[in-house]
Amino acid sequence: MPITKARSTGCDQICAACGAENAIDYSALSAGMYSAESGRTDPNCCRLPPCPTCGAVECLIRTWDSHPDPQNHSAKHKALVNRVFKVLVKKGRAEEHCASIYAAETADPPDLNPEDPDDHPETPIDIGPPGHLKKETP
């Protein structure tokens, strides 16, 4: 599930099930989810497309708490996920039932990557994979 990079057009993800590295275009994503069966919305969940290698379906979860160690990789991942949500909303990629929730928000999550990938489209925000998924170099 970890995303490792965010750019102006999409993000890179490592599949938790098979380890495949996938580039995901923002046009394939929507911030927020809606269930017609229950009539419930979740503005903090973003369903990723199925992994093209194994078919696993994963989600990004926007969070509103603060990580105690901002230099920790999980803190950087959390801040990057929160940034991706902000980018999706800014680009109009919000699930329609959640759009009014985003419009009413007056603050951002406290852990938010300070960089906006649209500010430097030629250079992605790259936090790399978490330690347990790093590939060993010969």
How would you describe what is shown here?
The chain has 138 residues and is an alpha+beta fold. Helices cover 17% and strands 20% of the residues. The protein is built from 2 helices and 8 strands. The protein has helices spanning 73-90, 99-104, and strands at residues 3-6, 10-14, 21-25, 33-35, 40-42, 45-47, 59-61, 125-126. The protein has a 4-stranded antiparallel beta sheet with strand order 3-2-1-8, with helices on one face. A two-stranded antiparallel ribbon has the order 4-5. Strands 6-7 form a two-stranded antiparallel sheet. A hairpin with a 6-residue loop joins strand 2 and strand 3. The radius of gyration is 15 Å and the shape is globular.
Topology:
Layout: E1 3-6, E2 10-14, E3 21-25, E4 33-35, E5 40-42, E6 45-47, E7 59-61, H1 73-90, H2 99-104, E8 125-126
Antiparallel strand pairs: 1-2, 1-8, 2-3, 4-5, 6-7
Short description:
With 138 residues, the protein is α+β, with helices and mostly antiparallel strands.
As residue ranges, the low-confidence spans are none
Spatial shape: globular
Number of strands: 8
- Termini separation comes to 26 Å
Could you say which structural class the secondary elements and strand pairing correspond to?
Answer: alpha+beta
Major sheet strand order: 3-2-1-8
Mean pLDDT rating: 93
Strand fraction band?
A: 15-25%
Major β-sheet, in short? 4 strands, antiparallel
Gyration radius over CA: 15 Å
What is the number of helices? 2
Helix and strand succession? EEEEEEEHHE
Helix coverage percent:
10-25%
